[in-house]
Amino acid sequence: MRLKHNLGLDQPVYVQYFKWLGRVVVGDFGWSMSNSEPVTDAILGRFPATIILMGTSFVFSLTLGVLFGIISAIKQYSWIDYLITTFAFFGQSMPTFWFALMVQLLFAVYGIPLLFGYHIQLPSAGICDTDTCGFGEVARHLVLPTLVLSLVFIAQYSRFMRSSMLEVLRTDYMRTAAAKGVSRRAVILKHGFKNALIPLVTIVALTLPILVSGAIVTETIFAWPGMGRLFINALQQFDFALLMGYMLMVSCLVIFCNLLADICYAWLDPRVKYS
Amino acid sequence: MAASLPLHPPAGVVAADETPLSRNTVWRRFRRHHIAIAGVVVILVMTLVAALANLIAPADPNFIDNVNWQGPALAPGIAGHILGTDEVGRDLLSRLIFGARISLTVAFFAVLMEISIGTVLGAISGYYGGWVDFVIMRATDVVLSIPLLPLLLVITAIVAGTSSKAALNFGVIVLIIGGLSWPAVARLVRASFLSLREREFAEAARALGNNDGRIIFRHLLPNAIAPIIVQATLEVANVIILESTLSFLGFGIQPPTASWGNMLANAQSNIIGAPWVAIFPGLCIFVTVLAINYAGDGLRDALDPNTQ
User: Fold this and answer.
1) What is the ipTM of this complex?
2) How many CB pairs under 8 A join A and B?
3) Of A166, B43, B103, B207, which is least surrounded by CB within 10 A?
4) Cβ B246 vs Cβ B153: under 8 Å
5) Number of C-beta neighbours around residue B19 at 10 A
6) Which chain A positions have a beta carbon within 8 Å of B165's beta carbon?
7) Residue among B35, B96, B149, B233 with most chain A CBs within 10 A, to mutate
8) Which residues of A touch B2 (CB under 8 A)?
9) Which is nearest to A229 in space by CA: B86, B206, B249, B204?
10) B265 — contact with chain A (CB < 8 Å)?
């Protein structure tokens, strides 16, 4: 009874909630039982690993997605368009956790046999093997998780980029530019590409929460020491202080990025005005 | 909040100067998509397998083959187990077949719930506008800005933490997934209703003295149904992945009940010795989701009056 009283557990849930909220405002997220350290330290300690993984995947999938989308659009109905479209469908239908398992099986357990007896064997767990965590080592460990996390986004971005580019290719200003004698390459890169990129900003902002979800699964399977794995560990031990802190931080991150996307949108496209 | 999407009505909503497509036209256009037809066939086969699980499955999904199983999982083909057994000696094929039943039923009911909530809220929001619209749309913004998977996980953890993990049964999983994934549908329906409510037949229905409920559900909704059907199809695919992810992480359908997701939960630790345990359930998820995505895509093209 006294323990309950001292910890404030005899109070109604809403009183407990507002007490929690009051502390959060001054930056105190409480004590994480599963890690025996303050929630803030636990989360911020794992933040860099997650940002490395999410950042790499984001850049990787955006680059490939945009590239695939443009190739697909300017070569519409060619074999390469079919190839990319099929890849996009497969990528979108792939459950992340199963793809992760298969990638592990292929690269880490069997190794891909190459010519001359060489094998590609890549580490499938953790962020580095030794205590001295060099750049090269992290990069090697990063390959498989990035591949897994990026697949869905490459698929989504390339599908969206394709339709966006196809729409732009039909516009009058593209025909005008071509009629002026600008080369096809310059028309596509200078006029088409830039305009097709604008709607992508919206899609990127909308897929950010999915990136966070994907990171949870990827980190769990590849034992990546990031926030996602921390979250799953906390979940298994019902460490609610950490769960609440994680949800709050992640949601704030997403909202902040959405705001950033809105600003980008207005900056990229002068036709958009926010009143 | 998320950057505002353009306010064109979604593809499939009949624009003012077009006649709606007849059922025949839609079918004729759908038939041209061979891959979408293949998708439908796969879906039908999976549904049939799930429905007739008791008749098809070679063994009881929870039966442990004590006679042949000695510890490690049996490889495919050994002792009459076509796809082998899992690490505790249960027939993998039977578990896959019964897993199909669970995974597909969860997906069906969760999407039914999600579409119902999303349609009603979106219709009200788009039809009435004003402060009603404001409140509903801000609520959807809030739900959309929270990553769905961790949110679902936290809620299932709360349910499991207050009673026990066994409380995470079929119905609870359906309620949680269906109750949180409606915002995309609500936005879609709202966008349709914003354009539909200005149309002449809506005005005519109002002038004839119909009440709002009748106008919304009898006059406007049938004209907005095409994009809802497409979205529902694609959502089934999403929910199958979502449920299997939850189950894989241990916060979805609880063992011993087989679902495609929880069959993979222990697969990682045994992946070297028993790769088939990891391969087949995921393959089922992948093939089903792929089939649904192709079917949904074909449906979208067939229902869209703007494509030829």
Assistant:
1) 0.86
2) 125
3) B207
4) yes
5) 7
6) none
7) B149
8) 202, 205-206, 258, 261
9) B249
10) no
Q: Give the amino acid at A103.
A: V
Question: In angstroms, rounded to a whole number, what is the distance separating the alpha carbons of residues B185 and B78?
Answer: 47
* Residue B103: closest CA among B294, B258, B254: B258
Query: For chain B, where are the alpha helices, taking DSSP H only?
Result: 23-31, 34-51, 53-56, 92-128, 130-145, 148-162, 170-180, 183-196, 200-207, 212-214, 225-248, 275-303
Count CA atoms within 13 Å of residue B256 on its CB side. Answer: 13
CB within 8 A of B137, min separation 6: which ones? Answer: B125, B187, B190
Cα distance from A77 to chain B (closest Cα, Å)?
15
| Partner-chain contact A95 B154, CB within 8 Å | no
Is the CB of residue B191 less than 8 Å from the CB of residue B118?
Answer: no
Its sign, for the CA torsion A153, A149, A57, A201, is positive
pLDDT, mean of residues B265-287: 87
HSE (CB half, 13 Å, CA atoms) of A55?
8
Determine the Cα–Cα distance for residues B155 and B183; give it in Å rounded to an integer: 18
Burial class (CB in 10 A: 0-12, 13-18, 19+), B183: buried
Average pLDDT over residues B296-303: 88
A145-174 tens-digit pLDDT: 999 999 999 999 999 999 899 888 888 888
Tokens of A89: 């469908």
Whole-number Å distance between alpha carbons of B140 and B4: 13
In angstroms, the CA A112 to CA A105 distance is: 10
pLDDT bucket at B4, cuts 50 / 70 / 90: very low
A260 at B interface, C-beta within 8 A: no
Closest CA to A265 of A166, A197, A178, A217: A197
Percent of chain B whose predicted confidence (pLDDT) is above 90: 38
Q: What is the pLDDT of residues A210-230, one digit of tens each?
A: 898 899 999 999 888 889 899
How far is the C-alpha of A145 from the C-alpha of A273, rounded, in Å?
Answer: 39
Residues of B in contact with A236 (CB under 8 A): 250
State yes or no: pLDDT of A235 exceeds 70: yes
d(CA B81, CA B74) in angstroms, rounded, equals 8
Q: Is B152 helix (H, G, I), strand (E, B) or coil?
A: helix
Indicate the residue of A92, A251, A258 with minimum beta-carbon distance to B293.
Answer: A92
How far apart are the CA of B10 and the nearest CA of chain A, in angstroms?
15
Identity at B69, one-letter amino acid code: W
Determine the average pLDDT of the residues in B188-217. 87
What is the mean pLDDT of the segment spanning A188-201?
Answer: 83
Other beta carbons within 10 Å of B111: 26
pLDDT of residue B1: 38
Q: Indicate yes or no: pTM above 0.90.
A: no
Q: Does A86 touch chain B (CB under 8 A)?
A: no
Could you tell me the two tokens for B60? 């009881």
In chain B, % of residues over pLDDT 70: 92
